[in-house]
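Predict both folds.
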Amino acid sequence: MSRAEAAPSPEKAIHAMAPLIRFTLLALYLALVLPLPLMAPESLRPLLLAAVPLGLVLVVAITSERVELDDSGIRVGHPPWCAWLLRRGWQLPWSTIQSLTPVGTSQGGRVYYVRDQGGGAFLLPQRVERFEAFLEDFAVRSGLDTSTVARISPPWTYRLLALLCGLMLAGEAIGLALARAGH
């Protein structure tokens, strides 16, 4: 059965950011900023010790973006706990969606814009969990062909970045342990 022939889910479907992508972005943040308070001059350490957790909350908020599909339309945004801060996102009723427009990226990938009757263009999320189910539901509800839509980057790129972040964090932990043992 093709994506367009499947029956849409009658209830609201919520698709969060794919866990691999979210974990990788959080790990990258931690790997890059955790050493900073230790490396900073003594006068800056209190500021950095306060900034690191605040930055982590911001990264968690940014990576909590989700897509909601229901009978009325599609909504891309953040959960209430952080929506007041980020205030970005969009929503469209199914009846106003007209087409998907592919656009090549400078890295050789392809993103898709959802076009509405008013000429607006809204970036179709491509980093969501259960991506195939999301595309199938979107296709059925919108009536658009999503057979050429793929993830913006293959999972192996995030797996490699996650591995590198894990190695960085492990190296930082070992370095900290050795530095403490030397004191």
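Second protein follows, with its predicted structure tokens after the sequence.
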Amino acid sequence: MAIVDTIIMELEQEASTTRRVLERVPQDKLSWRPHPKSFSLGQLAQHIAGGQKQIAKIASEDVHEIAIVNPAEATSQQDLLQTFDESTASAKDTLRKMDDKTILSTWTGKRNGATILSIPRIAFIRSILMNHIIHHRGQLSVYLRLLDVPLPSIYGPSADENPFA
């Protein structure tokens, strides 16, 4: 089995969970933010929805100039879910093109031409494509809790879905 196959299996599992959380985003609260320094609900959800495609594309490059971009705000839940489904499919397609040699080769991130990170590509994929999206999904679940939106199961039943809670 190629290394990328194990990554794609995990990506699919996490994407299923992430989609369940995105399905709970209330369309009428997209501009809500828990703090003035925080992304709005719509920005955070949009960042998650489109992130996999963007990060997989970046991972496919040997060297990437890192730019800080604030995500646009989602305009509707339907667009958000469509973006997420397309992003997930695109990320898997991009990853499938990577053989073991490519996955184990070095990926470099630069900012204004200066190297800020140079690591095995697989480490970039694990930490940014997987863990970064999972981190933001966790933030999104807190946003939803603060809005009193029932949470879906993530790694086990949530307090909203557990009959024993």
